[in-house]
Amino acid sequence: MTDLYKQLLENNKKWVEDQVAIDPNYFNDLAKEQKPKILWIGCSDSRVPANEIVGGKPGDVFVHRNIANLVIHSDMNMLSVLDYAVNALKIKHVIVCGHYGCGGVKAAMQNKSIGIIDNWIRHIKDLYRLHLEELNSIEDNEKKFNRLVELNVIEQVHDLGKTSIVQNAWKNGQEVSLHGWVYGLNSGYVTDLDVNISSNKDLHDVFHLDF
Fold this sequence. Notes:
Strand order of the largest sheet: 2-1-3-4-5
Distance between the termini: 56 Å
Order of helices and strands: HHEHEHEHHHHHHEEH
Number of helices: 11
């Protein structure tokens, strides 16, 4: 085994010892059940730890992550997580959290192939086309990049609200609120994009939908 791999195991032992020193029942209590109130749909980027960003502990946040925090209606992994969170865990808030400097979004802005991920980020390329006029009016490339990150999050909240899972929850009177955030890697702060949806009426009002 490499030194790095061995160090991971040692780090785990120290972490366990530290937690037990603070609370001897920490792991016994944690093993009983989970009652998160939040589902976090975020990017796979290793620099964006969901629990730590919101000051949470293990058990506070149910997490799904993928490249560029996409909500795709044919993605059974994401849908399974969403279904379990809404219908089994009865979570009340779903946060789609992107981050400035997202490699997936940046790749979608470039005209070069980087492998199988090209198929995944095609959704972001389509989003760029939908907002072509606004994005092309931004001369500064960094600002354009940041705006596409924000638009991507907003679009995912939109798509989340249209899933049969969320639609059925609202139809049955279940409280489920959808939110869009962007995390700043260089600051640690979250920007609330003020996309807060808790009903079909909100969805129609914000996105002017007709479906």
